[in-house]
Amino acid sequence: MRSPALTRHPAATDAGGRWESRLIRSAHPVVARVVDLAVARRQVTRVPGVGLLVADPEAARRVLSDTAHFAKQGPGSSGALWTPVLGERVLLNMDGPEHARLRRVLADLFSPRIVDEVCRDAAQPLVARAAERLRAGEPVDVARLAREVAAAVIGLVVGLSGGADRAELLRASDDIESMVTWRTRTFDEAAVDHARRALAVVQDAAEAAHRAASDDTVMGRLALQGVSLEEARSLAAALFLTGVGTVSSALPRIVGQLADAGLLDRPGAATADLDAVIAEGLRMTTPSLVTLRRCSRPTELHGIRLRQDERVVVLLWWATRLSGGFDPARRPPAAMRHLWFGAGSHFCLGAPLAIAELRAMAGMVLEVAAERGLAVTRRTAARRVLVPRYAELSVGAGAPG
Ligand code: HEM
In this structure, which of 176, 179, 265, 318 has its CB flanked by the most CB atoms within 10 Å? Predict the structure, then answer.
């Protein structure tokens, strides 16, 4: 049965929107201001030394979908950055028929059955424990919960076994994230070695699961489909890099939005249409702030001529802004829909898994909120991180803070 639509509290302000801006500025103090200024007047604009900034949702969708003119590979692209660390064939650094072929091989990696199984085994125990603590009146830091769930889920996908490995996985994720800034165009040899060492925990687990070739594990299924060991090791690292930071950033930000819209503190009010909450929460938070393309053939975008090899900075977070703040009852314009997961041939492969993880966690928070009311008791923005996020966002029965 579909639950009733969740409506904002009539007196709700756009405090959630202000927190979102604060998170972006805390993560990228200088760049965020430069971008805000640059796109305030023109949503598609050239900034010398940076590239063409694209904050208009239709133009962003065109760049991501038009593979005849815009590529993931080549000088200055994120694909080029990751190739020395991950190898040549990890989706996010591929284009064209080879990319499409590999995506087809991976198509059932995140089928509804597999997503359910992975979430049941990896996420549910952690989510159930958090619910118990909330029901016992203890505060829960949902930023921490989301990191643990995201790591447990990807850990299971790549073939890790237990909690100790999870801590190592989170260290590796932080370690690699700290190597990349807005200015990073290439890694030097020492950085490549460092990143490879950090990823060894993921890749060794993937290798063992691939060798066992059991259809109980995602890596085993890849082996059964003929994906080579080398390719599976690379893909495991790519899934890890794309799947941990994004989900850990999204959940606490969505919970923050719910609280700021007045949807957690009224017992009984939060019997939500969870799909609408997650979609609107992802629009508000758009954890992959930016993605890059290279203009592979001269073209025109929004009235601006682009040269071959020009860098295009697709500002996903800026392209998904709407006035009025978080509102699960709204339907965003078509060009914006799912743009938080990208568009076109590189559309997020892990979207079904990400949504299932977010449903499990946000659903639990809303359920407890419906029983007893919840408030944000503490929150701090993380400073100078690649993926904007809360360092802490605790919810509990205490006084709002
Ligand atoms: C809320 C969570 C997530 C968000 C917002 C997100 C966002 C995105 C975006 C915007 C892209 C496209 C990038 C581009 O076109 O340049 C992408 C691609 C990708 N995502 Fe996600 N993602 C999330 C979670 C995940 C998870 C959990 C996984 C894996 C388990 C994952 C795996 C991937 C992969 C492999 C690609 C590359 C696909 C390709 O290049 O063909 N993502 N994601």
Answer: 318
